Amino acid sequence: MQRLLIVEDEPALRRALTINLKARHYEVEAVATGSAALKAAAGVTPDLAIIDLGLPDMDGVEVIAGLRGWSSVPIIVLSARDSQSQKVRALDAGADDYVTKPFGMDELVARVRAALRRADTHELPGEPVVTTSAFTLDLAAKRARRGDLEVRLTPTEWHLVEALLRRPGTLVSGAQLLAEVWGPGYEKEINYLRVYFAQLRRKLEDEPSHPRHFITEPGIGYRFEP
Ligand code: CA
Questions:
Q1: What is the whole-number distance in angstroms between the Cα of residue 14 and the centre of ligand 1?
Q2: 156-181 burial by CB neighbour count: b if 16+ within 10 A, else e?
Q3: In terms of residue numbers, what domain contains 110?
């Protein structure tokens, strides 16, 4: 299920968005302030954020800038009809699309779908074959080699590898990896990651006890170094 973060301070609209998007099988987290939105996004990264530009505690543009500091999550802004300059600032700050209030739910849902579809095409690394000093992974053919040896990875190991390879060099939180690979509700199962990364390193790293490619940042997350 794709996860949407909604930031809207008007209670009636927040409720209507939540009900309508849940009815379309999205997982929804709805908050009323910019600071709550930034906090929520740092916990489990959403697949898309819907951000009202007029918020009580900060400008919606600041929320976008805050998210864009570390995330490429698609962002749709909700803006008042008379605020053209605000829309431009929002797009400059990194928003992907905007919807002008008042809007129909069908229009918003169509925008959400389109933004998610665009984001999806960027999900895989540009090159389907990733080669490091230790191993080669062919993501399209699902083949792994270490030197001359063919290595077998399980479907879960492939998911985990792909989740990291999509963002080379980037630190990905443990909660985010768990939610992406195992699904929502698994964010606290940090032990799964220990077990699976130990396995991956045994299979792929030259020196599993001194990994050079699948790096743990203790207490924070994991990073793939090409
Ligand atoms: Ca507002």
A1: 10
A2: ebebbbbbbbbeeeeebbbbbbbbbb
A3: 3-118
